[in-house]
């Protein structure tokens, strides 16, 4: 906002004519609205990109499981369930939360992995 006010003041002082004030104000407001619209669109696109990345990791992991007969290729354990990870750990955002047959859990995100001995341990770590 300060940038728009500064621009208004600078152009008003350069013009030195009050008859241009309304046109100058309208022009700067229109640009501010357009800038805000672009910012909102970029935020929407960023959210969509995050969702697409999350889906990509999720479906790639499911495909790995399918190819390995339900066995996790990294931990060599039978997988009971897979969910998209929605916790607070930034390193695993857009990743997956995996539950193994032996009652242990893992978080996988991109290239990172972390195993937990129980759901309680996983929840505590979040």
Properties at a glance:
rod-shaped, alpha+beta, four-stranded antiparallel beta sheet, 3 helices, 4 strands
- What portion of the residues fall into strands of 2 or more residues? 15-25%
Structural class call reads: alpha+beta
Average pLDDT metric: 87
What oligomeric state do the depicted chains represent? single chain
Number of helices: 3
* Strand line-up across the major sheet: 1-2-3-4
Distance between the termini: 37 Å
Q: How many beta-strand elements?
A: 4
**Helicity, as a percent range:** 40-55%
**Main sheet attributes: strand count, strand direction, barrel closure:** 4 strands, antiparallel
**What is the overall silhouette?**
rod-shaped
Task: Give an overview of the whole structure.
The protein has 126 residues and is α+β, with helices and mostly antiparallel strands. The chain has 3 helices and 4 strands; from the N terminus they run H-H-E-E-E-E-H. Helix 1 (2-15) packs antiparallel against helix 2 (21-67). It is rod-shaped, with a radius of gyration of 26 Å.
Q: Briefly, what is this?
A:
This protein is an alpha+beta fold.
Topology:
Elements: H1 2-15, H2 21-67, E1 79-84, E2 96-100, E3 105-109, E4 112-116, H3 119-125
Antiparallel strand pairs: 1-2, 2-3, 3-4
């Amino acid at each position: 906002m300060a940038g728009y006010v500064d621009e208004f003041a600078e152009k008003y002082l350069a013009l030195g004519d009050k008859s241009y004030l309304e046109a100058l104000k309208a022009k700067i407001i229109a640009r501010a609205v357009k800038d805000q619209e672009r910012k909102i669109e970029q935020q929407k696109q960023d959210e969509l990109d995050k969702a697409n990345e999350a889906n990509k990791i999720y479906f790639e992991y499911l495909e790995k499981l399918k190819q390995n007969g339900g066995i996790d290729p990294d931990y060599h354990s039978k997988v009971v369930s897979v969910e998209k990870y929605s916790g607070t750990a930034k390193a695993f955002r857009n990743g997956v939360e995996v539950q193994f047959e032996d009652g242990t859990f893992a978080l996988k995100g991109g290239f990172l992995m972390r195993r937990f001995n129980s759901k309680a341990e996983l929840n505590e770590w979040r």
